Amino acid sequence: MARAQQDLALRLEIEELYTEYAHVLDNFELEQWPEFFTDDCLYQIVSRENRERGLPLALMRCESKAMLADRVVTIRQTQMFAPRALRHLVSSLRIAPPASADGVDVQANNAVLQTLVDDETRILSAGRYIDRLVRDGDALKFKSRTCVYDTVMVPNSLIYPL
Amino acid sequence: MARAQQDLALRLEIEELYTEYAHVLDNFELEQWPEFFTDDCLYQIVSRENRERGLPLALMRCESKAMLADRVVTIRQTQMFAPRALRHLVSSLRIAPPASADGVDVQANNAVLQTLVDDETRILSAGRYIDRLVRDGDALKFKSRTCVYDTVMVPNSLIYPL
Amino acid sequence: MARAQQDLALRLEIEELYTEYAHVLDNFELEQWPEFFTDDCLYQIVSRENRERGLPLALMRCESKAMLADRVVTIRQTQMFAPRALRHLVSSLRIAPPASADGVDVQANNAVLQTLVDDETRILSAGRYIDRLVRDGDALKFKSRTCVYDTVMVPNSLIYPL
Questions:
Q1: Which residues of chain C make contact with B122, given a CB cutoff of 8 A?
Q2: Which chains share 3+ C-beta pairs under 8 angstroms with A?
Q3: In whole angstroms, what is the distance from residue B141 CA to residue B17 CA?
Q4: Nearest C-alpha in C relative to B89
Q5: Cβ-contact C127, C162 below 8 angstroms
Q6: Which residues of C55-86 are buried (b: 16+ CB within 10 A; e: fewer)?
Q7: What tens digit of pLDDT does each residue of A88-102 get?
Q8: DSSP C67
Q9: pLDDT at res. B117
Q10: C114: closest CA of chain B, how far (Å)
Q11: pTM score, two decimals?
């Protein structure tokens, strides 16, 4: 039954990371978003179907923190889209036993609810995060984050990262 | 990495408070609802749009625990509405560092799912809690709770507190 | 404010159990599902309405782990249905004080989101788990799990356990 204090501290730190990530996106603080990742990160959004078939197709794919920052600029400067509210619901954080010094594997379920002006709230996407976290200085960061979505999404309906 | 035991105990206490709140409302134990608040509390439900514009308009606003109790009586005695089931989903509790003796600031995402008789389950509202908690005797209570909703709600469709 | 280390370890163990359960079902690892239960378990899915009226009707009812295993075989071998993705959202774990050696009572809110091929993501069900957990060897297992659903479900739309 005993559980090391260190394990517990790590678990709380992971929960806080996921919580901050959700709030930053729901607040549209996009410039903060790349700061959750390591310099050489991989961030991708892939469909459940493509992932199961082993297809490399991704709806969004960024292979470094610099590419994430570019993506933010693109969203801020060039895209035209209707105002909306987003709300992340994240649950069932599954933390794999930390087997190596390479990082910690974590999975979590998520749903993103979207509200357009004068419309009811709808489920924009449901899916899973499949992540590898590493310590980067004092902070835990995403070495890789793969957002696997169940929801059939028209590509141009996805504007913001998940 | 070290985390004080006291911080951890506070965190668990906050999680339990939010859990109890959700279950009490989902169980329609409305008479218990004011007990989550301090005597001089502020409880309000405001739209995301009005909040961002700094407008003081609120869909519901109670400025004391006594007003919350009045609200419960109103719901119990005078309103006519179809039976329903409500289900709160709360996630991403963001606990601000306890900077002062005035209390603890907490935010959380929420969605409330509503099921009317013979209808499918729908999203009644999605949004955020913005709260200040204070210690009141042995218990943590809401000094203020602001429910910011993304969802465009027809005012009379909201009967119960969020 | 002090909280025993043992209480905390139990709480984390319960959270991990609920997390594993959700991931196993969302991954369609159905053969693992009976392993969450004791040999003499009770698993049932009942409507909120029937539960409140005290009616014994259940949409699914298994009175032992062997019956759960039978159910899995039935799902795997005989049923015909469209492929789908499921996503469990579980929150507000309410852990009753462990009053006796008989186990721990836990309740939690849940929603299951379902995505059929070429269709948007919908709420398959919303409801509550009402559970009793017991220690079985080294692991915590469900002595009973009652899934109370708010959602009006056509009986044959429920294929997988909740």
A1: 123
A2: B, C
A3: 8
A4: C91
A5: yes
A6: eeebebebebbebbbebbeebeeeeeeeeebb
A7: 999 999 999 876 667
A8: H
A9: 83
A10: 12
A11: 0.94
